[in-house]
Design a protein that fits this description.
Largest sheet: 5 strands, mixed
Oligomer: single chain
Number of domains: 2
Number of helices: 4
CATH topology of the largest domain: Nuclear Transport Factor 2, Chain: A
Number of strands: 10
CATH architecture of the largest domain: Roll
Shape: globular
Structural class: alpha+beta
Order of helices and strands: HEHEEEEHEHEEEE
Distance between the termini: 26 Å
Helix content: 10-25%
């Protein structure tokens, strides 16, 4: 079932390239709950969106894809009229998806260490440590990012190099500590995490979905970590501003 669901989502996302309405067949239109505030509810809204996007000659690259119980989540790269990076999360019932969340931002970079927002490791292993890894990331988000206890950083990072894909940062724990303790100039000024909504995991990869503020703007933070030896060793992320409720095309909320 895990592999089948991943393949269904691959087909679904690649359908954006062609505008093929059949690609949305994985969506149960009677139950589908859409959390992208800029997309209408149900399969019909997605079919219209795909058809519109196909006119821009889009390209979709699925950098990595994972499964966690009833969820499938993917790290994606879109080339529409502009290049964007996203995380897509789907909840399944049987062989159809009934709920969807995402977080998409403009593609930037490469960063000071030469990494793009999507390159890096992709292989899933260490499945027996899934729950331990999930708890490790939950503890990091809540204890370090939300509670701002930077003295705990050493509990989550080892002596080996930490690979960073955020376009505004660079490799290494010192750079991370500096970014968290001293707001930098430009786009990454004043980032504040306030609430952790969901932690999804498969083996050595864990995705955290959080809410907070960036530059005073209500925002959604998606952080993907790779874990090795009970330490965080690689990180990818996207940040997206949450539009005011008056602009939403559905009433389900971002989270």
């Amino acid at each position: 079932m895990t592999a089948e669901r991943k393949n269904l989502i691959r087909t679904f996302l690649k359908g954006i390239e062609t505008g093929d309405e059949a690609s949305v067949g994985v969506v149960n239109p009677d139950k589908y709950i859409q959390h992208n505030p800029q997309t209408h509810e149900g399969g019909e809204g997605l079919a219209a969106l795909f058809k519109r996007l196909s006119k821009t000659s889009p390209r979709v690259n699925i950098a990595r894809i994972f499964s966690d119980g009833e969820f499938v989540f993917a790290h994606t790269e879109y080339d529409f009229s502009s290049r964007r990076i996203g995380f897509e999360v789907f909840r399944f019932e049987g062989d159809q998806t009934v709920e969807h969340w995402d977080n998409i931002q403009a593609r930037l970079g490469p960063n000071a260490s030469g990494h793009t927002m999507v390159d890096g490791a992709t292989e899933v292993f260490d499945l027996e440590s899934t729950e331990d890894n999930r708890q490790l990331v939950r503890s990091f988000i809540e204890g370090v990012l939300i509670d701002e206890k930077l003295e705990k950083l050493s509990e989550y990072f080892g002596s080996e190099s930490f690979t960073e894909h955020n376009p505004h940062s660079e490799d290494g724990v010192p750079a991370l500590r500096s970014a968290l303790s001293e707001p930098a100039s430009g786009d990454d000024l004043m980032v504040r995490y306030e609430k952790l909504h969901r932690v999804l995991a498969e083996g050595n990869f864990v995705l955290a979905v959080s809410e907070g503020f960036k530059n005073g703007i209500h925002s959604s933070f998606y952080d993907l970590f790779r874990i090795a030896g009970r330490r965080l060793v690689e990180h990818w992320d996207t940040t997206e501003a949450i539009p005011p409720q008056s602009e939403w095309k559905n009433e389900n909320g971002k989270f």
